Amino acid sequence: MRTAFFWTYLALVAAQVILGNFLNLSPYVVLCFLPAMILCLPARMSQPVVMVTAFLTGLAVDFTTHGILGLTASALVLTAFCRNFIISLVFGDEVIARRENVSVRKQGLPKVALGILLCSAVFFAAYVWIDAAGTRSFGFNFLRTLLSTLLGTLVSIPVAGLLSEEEGSIWK
Amino acid sequence: MPEAGKGYGLLNAVVFILLEITAVVLLGSTRGLQDIWLNRATHRVLASMWSGSEHVRHYFSLERENRELADENLSLAIHLREQGQLQLAMQYGGVSDTTAGRFRYIPATIVKASRNSLHNYIILNKGRADGVVPQSGIVTNNGVAGIVTAVDEHFCYGLTLMNPRMSVSARIGHTGLVAPVSWNGGRSDRMRMRDIPLHREVSPGDTVWTSGFSSVFPPDIPLGTTGKTHVVDGSVNEVDVELFLDFGALRFVTIVECLDRPAIEKLEKEAGQ
Description:
The complex is a heterodimer. By secondary structure, chain A is mainly α.
């Protein structure tokens, strides 16, 4: 089942690359579900491994999408760094203590959606700020972060369902 | 469980920082905009560091700058006094002779000064080797500080104006009443102008200047402004003078030597005989 999770994860990265290359909705919106993927990484992975995974994922997406190496990677590493804090905040400390995976089935959709929202907010705040590089107004950056977070959360919910289904099967 | 303890938290932080640095370095090397942004941020940090060190350096060079400013102040004061005398002479139809030329000025720094006793003194870092002679005046731009009474090779000792034994000949306005000003042992920012005839009224707020009627101080050094008038023994008036000079903040002064003093004293002696 771990292999299945791995392939699902790779497929989702590929989907993100395709989205990034071919679906540009507006300058105010960045469509990205990578934060949800980081949130749903198996609980058995230690945080440093999660951060390295986030870094490599971000780098792969950067390399194949817009060629700005480090943009997605830095924002995603930050999200991975905040992951445990967000899990404790939304799902409780016992989820981390019991090493439970984040799953729609176990924790319920509202909590998972809230977790994704927070992860996306961290990710997009960093992403938009770094991407702007001090050249855009605060209003533009704020709106871009807000819209991207909301849309990204909506898109990420099925992604989280998909990943938790694959990983959740090892508990059956 | 490896995730417990400070070591794990430290490892997380180290991995996070390393990955972020790698990402930022990659970012800077692949995109010009981010490169400029990072450079700008770096320059901002460097600029603030340099500015801080410059402030420290500046702080420690304040002594030298103060000395330079005091010198510049002195030359400006001499120039101003010359101009003032010239203007007065022309205004009253006199000959345009420059009084400032009869005085020699030596900038000095206060080494020690007393302020809390009835007979206050001052020690300056200039002495006989610098050309200081006894009975020279000690002045600043804000007024008279004292008189040199004893001179050593490299230092001189003087009585400050905060000393009842010392008085300065002063004038109200540039052309008004002349009377001696001295300290009555009270507040350090207030003197008394004495021996004013009862029939002379002094309005408060007028500026009091040195009269120049002495062989110690040049004329037209501002001393302060007039205050309340007091009748003493029913025979004379005394007027408060609010000083411009703050004795507490005094550090740099100018020693003034009247070059004509020996000749004046000789003349006084001959006239007395």
